[in-house]
Design brief:
- The structure is a single chain.
- By secondary structure, the protein is α+β, with helices and mostly antiparallel strands.
- The protein has a domain of about 180 residues.
- The chain has a six-stranded antiparallel beta sheet with strand order 2-3-1-4-6-5.
Length: about 270
């Protein structure tokens, strides 16, 4: 499996409205300058850059492009001011009940430790070399399926952490980059405003070294977890791409025969 094939597979097995996004940080300026992607000519919030990439945009970004101070802090393109580090900033905005709780939030967020010369955000399918992180924003069903795909190889997901704040920059990017583990995010009010995510969307961040594993896990768990209507749609998408659909078996699920009494309908 290569990057292009992995995207074709995940887009066939999951009905994604957005492209999986790859994020790559460059700590060598010459390497960043030589990466053949145009640099954005304006400021943009980090999460909006991910939203644009999920719709096909390719871009390089430096600290001069950063429009959101919190996103810039997460990717070490801006220093963390004392009021934020101490917890006073968010407490003063009535986000948390006291300074101690607010400081606990700041202390537990994992940001980049070294300032990058720049970064690239673009559809994963555009990468010919490994990015650092893959971000998929989709509906809750598709994120569930990717969690199940991860679980196929790794078991229980013990390290999921989110708090409804700095959702794309920290939850889905720098936390994943630092831990080399997957994470999910319910997103946050800021990113829902500036990146215009849909109300039913959430995100999953995956370190690239686990990406192929997650894709394969989604494939392996299709027969037990997907219902026949979804399986038929998957077969159709695979066939349209010329991919093998022979392993999908209709009429088979993990919970066959498990329920007694049938499904109860409520009459209004």
């Amino acid at each position: 499996m290569d990057i292009k094939k992995s995207v074709e597979l995940i887009e066939s097995y999951l009905d994604l409205d957005r492209k999986p996004v790859g994020v790559k940080f460059f700590f060598d300026k010459a390497e960043f300058d030589n990466f053949d992607v145009p640099q954005l000519d304006r400021k943009v919030t980090y999460c909006n850059s991910i939203q644009l990439a999920s719709k096909g945009k390719v871009m390089k970004l430096t600290k001069e492009n950063q429009a959101c101070p919190n996103g810039a802090m997460a990717i070490k393109m801006k220093d963390i001011p004392e009021p934020m580090a101490s917890g006073k900033a968010r407490f003063n905005k009535h986000i948390y009940k006291d300074v101690e709780t607010s400081k606990n939030i700041s202390d537990n967020m994992l940001f980049l430790k070294e300032e990058p010369a720049g970064m690239v955000a673009m559809p994963l399918e555009n990468f010919t070399e490994a990015p650092d992180v893959v971000i998929v924003v989709s509906n809750t069903y598709n994120v569930m399926r990717m969690i199940q795909g991860h679980g196929y190889f790794n078991g229980y997901t013990n390290n999921l952490r989110t708090v409804g704040l700095q959702a794309v920059c920290q939850d889905l990017t720098t936390y994943v980059y630092n831990t080399q583990d997957i994470n999910i995010s319910l997103l946050c009010p800021g990113t829902r405003l500036v990146a215009n995510w849909k109300p039913n969307e959430m995100g999953i961040g995956i370190p690239f070294n686990k990406w192929y594993e997650v894709v394969q896990g989604v494939i392996e768990t299709t027969n037990p977890f997907e219902r026949d209507n979804n399986k038929k749609a998957i077969i159709k998408r695979l066939n349209e791409r010329g991919l093998d659909a022979s392993g999908i078996i209709l009429g088979q699920n993990y919970d066959d025969g498990s329920y007694t009494g049938g499904k109860v309908e409520i009459n209004k």
